[in-house]
Design brief:
It is a single chain. By secondary structure, the chain is an alpha+beta fold. It has one domain (17-112): Winged helix-like DNA-binding domain superfamily/Winged helix DNA-binding domain (Arc Repressor Mutant, subunit A, Orthogonal Bundle), CATH 1.10.10. Helices cover 50% and strands 13% of the residues. The protein is built from 4 helices and 3 strands. The protein has a 3-stranded antiparallel β-sheet. The longest helix is centred in the last third of the chain and has 25 residues, at 88-112. Mean pLDDT is 89; it is low at 3-8.
């Protein structure tokens, strides 16, 4: 993940977060690397920007763990690209990780407490 000057506050991701976001993106079907990065950026309202230096090692890591599989195909701009797809094992991992993240978010929210209005 990287930051970009055009946005005043990009969000730094915790270790392992990119893997989870990639898996979540692939739940909707096959995508090539650039499509995955674009979906994460658009879905996060441009708060998250995935650079190639982070994306492709993450895709290789996920493929090595058999959470995704890849095959060659042709992209929408008629170029050869690898298309990644979530496996059954990846779907199971996604469910577990999503539940853990939701518990984490809830716990951190409890510690931070409600937002106080400035007075």
């Amino acid at each position: 993940m990287s930051t970009q000057d055009s946005s005043s506050e990009r969000i730094a991701l915790l270790q392992g977060t990119l893997d989870l976001l990639i898996l979540r993106t692939l739940i909707f079907g096959k995508q090539h690397g650039q499509g995955i990065a674009r979906t994460i950026q658009q879905t996060s309202d441009d708060a998250l920007l995935v650079d190639h230096g982070s994306l492709y090692p993450a895709l290789q890591r996920l493929e090595a763990k058999r959470w995704i599989q890849a095959e060659w195909g042709v992209s929408e701009n008629n170029r050869k690209a690898r298309f990644y797809e979530l496996t059954a094992l990846g779907r199971e991992h996604l469910v577990r990780e999503t539940n853990q993240w939701r518990r984490l978010v809830e716990a951190v929210g409890l510690i931070l407490g409600p937002e106080k209005s400035e007075g």
